[in-house]
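#onboarding

Welcome to the new folks! Below is a worked example of what a typical request in this channel looks like: someone posts a single protein sequence, and someone else replies with the predicted structure as tokens. Don't worry about understanding the tokens yet, we'll cover that in week two.

Example request:
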Amino acid sequence: MTDPELIRRAEAAGIAHHYRDWRGEEVAVSDETITAILAALGDAPDAPRASDAVSTPSAPSAPSAAGVSSEAGEVSVIGTGDPGAGGRTAPAPAGRSWGFAVQLYSLRSRSSWGHGDLRDLAELAAWSGRDLGAGFVLINPLHAAEPLPPVSPSPYLPMTRRFTSPLYLRIEDVPEYQQLTEEQHEHIEELAAPLRARNATSDLIERDEVWLAKRAALEIIYRIPLSTRRRASFRRFREREGSDLQHWAAWCALAEIHGPDWRCWPDEARNLRSAGKVTAGTQPCAAVSFHAWLQWLADEQLASAQRAALAAGMAVGIIHDLAVGAHPGGADAWTYQDKIVRGMSVGAPPDGFNQLGQDWGQPPWHPGRLAAAGYRPLAGLFEAALRHAGGLRVDHVMGLMRLWWVPRGMTPDRGAYVRYDHEATVGALANEAARAGALAIGEDLGTVDPWIREYLAQRGILGTSMLWFAREPDGTPLRLEHWRRHCMATVGTHDLPPVTAFLTGEQVTVRARLGLLKQPEDTERSNAELMLSRWRDTLVAEGLIQPGDRPGHAEFTVALYAYLAKTPAELISVSLADAVGDRRAQNLPGTSNEYPNWRIPLCDSGGRAVLLEGLPGLPLVRAVARAAAGLPPGPEPGG
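Example response:
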């Protein structure tokens, strides 16, 4: 970029006109990208900023209170750079612990309806806490999708981040289920039976079928009158959730009539202020109450899962996951249409694994308008996510400080970083975590300036360190003493294949077949083998595998988690897919219909379905658990 005036305008708007990529090389942002982002920002109202630090991404400034004007004209202090000056830090872990990370939909039991549910979560937590000594279970976002099929499969592109998908409800755990007639019970069993039969297969998860069956059952249960006590509980829930619940339920009612993209609705429905009138008719009004009732049931079952985890002796319990954003046509975008930026979507620049960059299809918050709202929409998300949780993982936590904006019509590699007031946004997270007495974990992988991790640590936000990307400057595996303590350590993530696929080379084969490589396949395979060779050498040096061995997937998986246990990391996250020897990635960034993202059930290395009840009998699961706990091979913990 050579235009000084464009540079000045970009800096004034918080747009970075250059950045360093994953190789450490400086990349200039094009004039076209800067111009598109400036146009999308428009004439936003000026809002007070916590400090001028956000205009200098190399380091944060001296601490200062984040006073921002609220919509009511009051000043809300969301955060501060100095905990001693009035801001709060998120709680630190009480001690070191490990736990399973699971895509909950993929974990079926004999009783679930072809899709993992909140009872499955409670039982996984109870078993792993009681029998294996696990301290937590980390799950995917449970955010709600469309109210009618087709149901979007991605947990990271929901219709709302504020409420829970009723797909995760265990029908039989709804109290009113016990009041059904024998004929109604038989009808619901007929709905459930074919879905339960699929649990024993490796067939892809069919959310549409699951939701059609569950919704039919829930509509039957909904007609059962509530007891006086239950009616009072529902009323209190609605009062507590207030306008957020009313907006979500109204969006669902309107989506059932006009479709799940509010941008295509009639004018009177698109306008949030007139939506109350639009949903005042008999049918829409009944639908609003039904969708509010579903959220009440989900809230009860979420609370039950956390109670089960803590009762089993878990130090933390359930760690929930918050997606980066929501669908541009969904309820959140409808509710906050004056606070998001249209014509832009968020994503990530190219990195070593996702070499084309990523476009997640989600509109970003408008920095100025979010500030003018007192950051209350963001703080409300954190508060709700932490209500029945021992911790919250914030996906792509750097997005609280800067987000990669991709202008409509451009490829992901042509985006630019746009800055947010980090003291206010991170302060909101730290404050809500402190209020809930829960851990806050930031997924800070990828291209991250050092000051970002330092600032997050100052506010008590744990980082994330991933083994596959943890390297010394010369490319060798990161030495044990160089790992962070204040982090959750993992081998991989939901966006990477399990260990077995790395060991067999399938992770290269699949990406090559789908056209996701920017370099020749032979080069990619050579690089992958070099990485595995270096890890084998490191594991030999630590005494975790024998010299000269080419370990199979089970031995190699156990050794990698034993290596994590030797790091100083406070939390060790064990992928349940790794622990059963699964081969398929849950998600391949850069694909949609080309790969069955978010639809793969938990299976072993032979492609056979693994159910919740089968986990205790799998030697690899217990061996990995011992390794993550830092225990030598032998009898299972607690056994």
